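Protocol step 4 of 6: structure prediction from sequence.
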Amino acid sequence: MAKRMVLTLLVTAVFVAALGFVKFRQIQTAIGQAAAFQPPPEAVTTITAAEEAWPATLTAIGTVAPVQGVTVSADLPGTVERIGFESGGAVHEGEVLAILDTRQEQAQLAAAEAQRELARLNFDRMHGLLDERVISQAEFDRATADYRQTDARVGEIKATIERKTIRAPFAGILGLRHVNLGQYVSGGDPLVVLQSLSPIHVNFGVPQQAIAQVRAGREIRVTADDVAGAAFTGRVTALDSVVDESTRNVQAQATLANPEGKLRPGMFVQAEVTLGTATRVVSLPASAISYAPYGESVFVVADFKGANGTSYRGVRQQFVKVGAGRGDQISITSGLKPGDEVVTSGVFKLRNGAAVVVNNKVRPANSPKPKPENS
């Protein structure tokens, strides 16, 4: 009985040892296969880095302002007798815009002219009597003063009548009319807005660190989304003398030709100031840059060897220094050389040494002046 039990235990121990050995071999094989496993390559798009000449420019958002712009107002109170313009029309300098009722002033002028004529006759008479020494010098001086006073009164009434004829102070485009025929207006009441549209100003902010580069005479290029396909060029004509404490910007003003009046005061525009000669940079689509707290990087495609000795196409992470941007593009100032094949999409799923397959049928946008579809 004991012999049979020993034999049973021996057979059981041999069976367990054999089973353990088989499982050990299976685990070793699985570990080896896991170590040799190569994940499937990630699909990416790439671009060959190239050196380009980027002009040294400063971009800013500007506001269009008229070179000359006023609200034409009534100088004196009165009733509108005639309106000589249409809303939105063009006028020349000195053109009559409106005339106020001057019947009262005309009556006063007639009376003043009669008084002046009487004073003139009295002056002539006194002059003759003075020569004959019939009157004193004091009486003659009084007659002279009366004549000059009545003459000044006539001039004052004529000036009042002239001020009730409202004229355009300069040539330009009118806005909407604010008065109607027969309406009583007080002194200072607006009649219409008048603005000169060519040439025209564009005001924009310049960061304080760029003040030395943006000076009077620099060329400026202006575009507006509201004026599709049109670009306007001009020159920077003035810079403000103070820096805005809230924005640390200096207001600059450029003057541009606007012959067709496409730019209107108050419009927002994109201003691009040429600062100097072009610089050579390596440019990439903005989607190629991987941003991280420890620095910006790109993934460069290169040839690698796997653990089993086979070659494959993979990527290596390359840290770079990023410069200015232009549209969809970013300039690289260091860390990359022309000719490197750089991943432009799918960088978020890559790691150093990861296998990739390049598919450039659809690439990310890479335009220096992109035009959104819904713009």
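Step 5 (inspection) to follow. The chain has a mean pLDDT of 84.
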